[in-house]
Amino acid sequence: MLAVGVDIGNLTTKAVVMNGSKLLASSVIQTLDEADASALSAMNKAFEFAGEEPAVKKLVVTTGAGGKEVSFADRSKAITTCLARGISWCKPGIRLVIDIGAESSTVVKMNGRGRVVDWANHDKCASGTGLFLQQMARLMKLSFEEMSELSREASQGAEISGTCAVFAESEVISHVHRVPPTPMPDIILGIYLSVSTRIKSMCKRVGMENPLAISGGVALHEGFVQNLEKEIGEPIYVPENPVCIAAIGAAILAGEEINKDALK
Amino acid sequence: MNNLQQQNAPSSLEVFHVVNQTFPETAEIREWRNKGNKVYGWLCTYVPEEIIHAAGILPIRITGYDRETELVDSDAYLYTNNCSFSRSCLQMGLAGEYKFLDGVVGGSTCDGARRLFDLWRQYIGTPFYHVLTVPRKYTDSALRLYLAEVEQFKAHLEEHLGVSITDEALTASIELYNQTRSLLKELYNLRKLPQPSITGAQVMEVTDACFRMPKERFNVHLSALLEELKESTVTYSGRARLMLSGSVLANPDFIGAIEEQGGLVVADELCTSTRYWGDMVDNSGKEPPLAALARRYLNNYPCARMFPSEERFSRIVQTAKDHHVDGVISEIIRYCVPYAHDLPLLTDRLKEADIPVLSIDLEYGSSGSGQIATRVQAFLEMIEAKKNG
Amino acid sequence: MVEKGSNKIQSIIRACRIILRMVEVDPNARESQKKYYRMLLQYFTRLRDAQENGQFIAAHTVFFPSEIILAMDLVPMHTETTTWMISLFTGECSDILAAGVREGMATEICAPHRGMTGAFANGSIPKPDVMLWSNMVCDNTAKSGELVMDICDCPGYFLDRPFKNSDLEKAYFADEVRDMIAFLETQSGKKMDYNRLSEIAETTNRQINLTREINELRKNVPSPFSPLGFLELLTIDYLFPGQPESVDYLETLKKELTQAVAEKKGAVPNERFRLMTLFIPPMYLMAFLDRLSRESGAVSVIEPFFTFWGEGNLDPSKPVEAVAEKSYMIPEARMYGPLGNTALETMKQCVLDWKVDGAVFYADVGCRHSCATIKLFKDTLADVDVPMLTIDCDVVDQTVTTEEEVTEKMERFFELLEDR
User: Fold this and answer.
1) Are residue C104 and residue C159 in the same domain, yes or no?
2) Is C371 part of the contact surface with chain B (CB cutoff 8 Å)?
3) Do C175 and C291 fall into the same domain?
4) Taking the CA of residue C90 as centre, how many other CA atoms within 13 Å lie in the half-sphere pointing to its CB?
């Protein structure tokens, strides 16, 4: 029996297929209008990559914003539980994972066994999320790679409001149009700092503990991750497949359930 | 201070400026400690500082960072809905910047302060720790309770230090502090003039330094400043004469930003200014020194926590009149509850006295730029229009 | 005063009547629940009719010794509870909150106080004959009186409740109470009946003892008292301190819980999570939280700062001192005064005695002094291996958090507890 984990997020849906402790395949698609359709599509794509038939025996655990709406799910689990399981599988011993998703950011603290001990999240607005960084990138017409490159040349982070993405956007615009204009690297560093500050706040709320890890699309944004490491003062582990961590965790939970049933 | 102010600033102001810039790593504090002496931090104008002084300890005020700054650690402990002043103080404490303190003393004055002290005790830990109960009324009964608290504080200090704080020592300390108050009063009287020789921002440098250095030194420096000002030909005038009132504020740049626009700040009513040094202690011997201290501290220029609020309001109106003020800028830190509650009634009182009020809410350490500057501009224009009929 | 609000007292009464009718025909409802709603109905009806009946209304803030008002046969109006009830029974507070802002109150001022000021200003609640308030338990309470006096054009008295639990401070507080009694006598033209006050002290003792006994019963696994039933325990002391109705309610409740324990019948069908509740859940989410609790098998078994009384009893032979003493015995007294190790040890002991699995902290965005304990309590509970969930909310303002957000947080928390 295969273990399947599906994370139905607001923008993307991720699916992971495991057989025992072996990760067979993962997939990422754009979330569709219906949760069922999204989950099915992502799952089938993952099966395709794994060389498995969609009709194979499986146990499906879903998570994410659309997790509860998937009719064929055997179980749906909270994203926090999945993130903890997922990152612990990638690198056992991680105690804190920072998940910066498209529309929300979450910090999950776990014990040595990958069990959630506490969490803090921010989902009231765009600041401190992947959406914010994307908005800024679009505003400055840069890719994440370009942003990362430029940020290394920064001498000082430009002052940018840490609390509101809407204000931040107008502040970035005024930095660009200033006479003389604020150097691009400094603006980028300022943007990074405003996100890092929010992440730091969440870490302090749960109580900092290491080793730390990062997950979510923003983990691939090298320049930002380096800045976050500097601000927190600890190295941050970046997993191989950062976007799929919650889906991996869901698959792990599916595997645990399969084993439990097998013992009965 | 803006550039103009800095250029024309009296030279004797420099020493205060240095203290504020280097605090808490000031030369005076280092020198004091190198001699093996102790330093206690205190918070709130209801802590009778003279007692600490009489015990041979240097009292310095816990004020947090003067500028707006990142408060991530204290946000986690005090939570973001406690005023940024209490969070700034706790942040400095958590960052170890007050590590050198041998004791901390506070009063049960407001929620932010009392929780600051609760958390300080749990997470920072200073060898000596004391919180005084401060009643909220001015009645005889309240004074009796406060005196008992003051006596208990003195006894606790004596026990901890293994010293005896004599009436003579207290009288001497009171004498010294009264001198400070008297000198500051002289300084403030200069601001009543139509064209004062000192700006509001410059005065804040002085008042800030006052609670950050030994009073003995401070009095000498302030006397020198007053001498220099007597001879000075520099004068300041503005588009309007303003009074600053509200929550604790210690950043001279905030006042500088107002003055840069032409609003000369000729009076203020703040925890760090008149509510601190305001009244004298009656040292005539009518009452024993502790009783005199208790009477003075309880009845001093009131904090918004005291009841009835009319005591504070009437003093503010009187100060505004004495200093010929055209308008009042009320600055209240977000989540500074006692002052926020007072504002509607205070505004009415000032309106009755035909004094307009600009109400600003801000964070502790604000530099007064941006939105705030815009609103000050509009306020000044409104006052000018009123003056021109 | 800008616009006239609708009479919210009438809305509360109407809602109470409806709920009472439902409870009366519900076979699963407790007899004590019926008594509780009858008490609420009685309280607000008396308030509504007071002016018409020429009775003297004394408005007062929370944790205020309203026994004084009752002993003088005046009509009390508990301002915060009234605001809570408006939120609870009408689910809607935005008009009175907006009215509070129009009176000049900053939005950071906690919603119950903004709301009550706004409610006075726009006529949603009747104007009192006097405003009474104290500094228990925070600055908002301490500062709310003068503006209300101004808006309602009525006299007022501020009761200064000192900070530490010492004989000297209690004596000061007792003197304050005496002074206030004199003030009330002058204002109302009625005399304090000290015999009645003594009786109230005695009845308060019974009330406290019964509450303690009820809490003992809640130690049982499964716990017999409904998930959010503790709100009834709070409210009866706020509205009927030392009154025979409270004792009647508590005796009935005690009988019910004793029976439930004998039958090993839990309040929720499948008790999975025994929770410690810190502070008060949002009023407008009560029905929702009750449902969620039942569905998840969660029940609040102890609330150290709301239902766990301090030690000792009152001395009825000294009624004024008894009033002062009570102020130091109420569960919330631990939140005022230096928050030292005693309060923290009490929390930890509660965890052990009530077999608590997890704690839920309702972090009211307007309540500064309670939010400043979030990390402290979390760390304290971590010492006894109890995780704590923090829910950012507001006790009456429904715009601060939603059912969806709360559901998501609770579900994550329950999963966390199960996973252990």
Assistant:
1) yes
2) yes
3) no
4) 22
- Report the C-alpha gap between A180 and C88 in whole angstroms: 56
C412/A115 CB distance under 8 A: no
Distance from CA of A147 to the nearest CA of C (A): 34
ipTM associated with this complex: 0.93
- Residues of A near B (Cβ–Cβ under 8 Å) read 197, 200-201, 204-205, 207
Q: Look-up: residue for tokens 């700040």? A: B265
How close is the nearest chain B Cα to the Cα of A231, in Å?
Answer: 11
pLDDT of C3 strictly over 70:
no
Contacts of B72 in chain A (CB under 8 A): 197, 200-201, 204
* Residue A212, Cβ density class (10 Å: 0-12 exposed, 13-18 middle, ≥19 buried): buried
* Pairwise CA distance, residues A182 & C89, whole Å: 55
Measured in angstroms, the CA of A115 and the nearest CA of chain C are apart by 7
Chain A CB contacts of B70 below 8 Å:
197
Scan residues 349-388 of B and list those with Cβ closer than 8 Å to C. Answer: 361
**Could you check whether the bond before residue C137 is cis, i.e. omega within 30 degrees of 0?**
yes
- Rounded Cα distance between C363 and A166, Å, is 26
Burial C273-298 (b: 16+ CB within 10 A, else e): bbbbbbbbbbbbbbeebbebbbebbb
Tokens representing residue C221 in the block? 């696994």
Interface mutation vs chain B, best among A96, A159, A200, most B CBs within 10 Å:
A200
Determine the length of chain C. Answer: 420
In B95-139, alpha helices (H): 111-119
User: Is CATH 3.40.50.11890 the right assignment for the domain spanning B25-167?
Assistant: yes
- Partner-chain contact A118 C419, CB within 8 Å: no
Tens-place pLDDT, residues C322-363: 999 999 999 999 988 888 888 999 999 999 999 999 999 999
HSE (side-chain half, CA atoms, 13 Å) at C160:
25
Q: Where are the beta strands (DSSP E) in C92-241?
A: 130-134, 156-159
What is the interface size between A and C, counted as CB pairs within 8 Å?
A: 28
The three-state DSSP-derived secondary structure of A219-234 is HHCHHHHHHHHHHHCC
Q: What DSSP designation does C4 have?
A: P
In angstroms, the Cα distances linking C306 to C37, C86, C141, C347, C394 are 20, 21, 17, 12, 17
The predicted-structure confidence for B61-100, as pLDDT tens digits, reads as follows 999 998 888 899 999 999 999 999 999 999 999 999 999 9
What is the DSSP-derived secondary structure letter of residue C55? P
Q: Is A35 in contact with A60 (CB distance < 8 Å)? A: no
- Tens digits of per-residue pLDDT, B234-284? 999 999 999 999 999 999 999 999 999 999 999 999 999 999 999 999 999
Interface residue ranges in chain B relative to chain A, Cβ cutoff 8 Å: 70, 72-73, 75-76
* Helices of type H across C91-138: 94-102, 111-121
Q: How far is residue C267's CA from residue C418's CA, in Å, rounded to a whole number? A: 20
* Interface probe, candidates B68, B69, B72, B366, chain A, greatest A C-beta count within 10 A: B72
Q: Is A118 on the interface with C (CB under 8 A)?
A: yes
C344 and C242 in a common domain: yes
3-state helix, strand, coil in chain A (%, to 5): 45, 20, 30
The answer to whether position C17 is within a domain reads yes
Domains in chain A with CATH codes: 1-91+241-264 (3.30.420.40), 93-238 (3.30.420.40)
Using the beta-carbon criterion (under 8 Å), do B81 and C368 form an inter-chain contact?
A: yes
CB contacts of A201 in chain B (<8 Å) are 72, 75-76
Which structural domain range is residue C162 located in?
A: 8-193
Is-contact C362 C391, C-beta < 8 A? yes
| A80 interfacial to chain C (CB closer than 8 Å) | yes
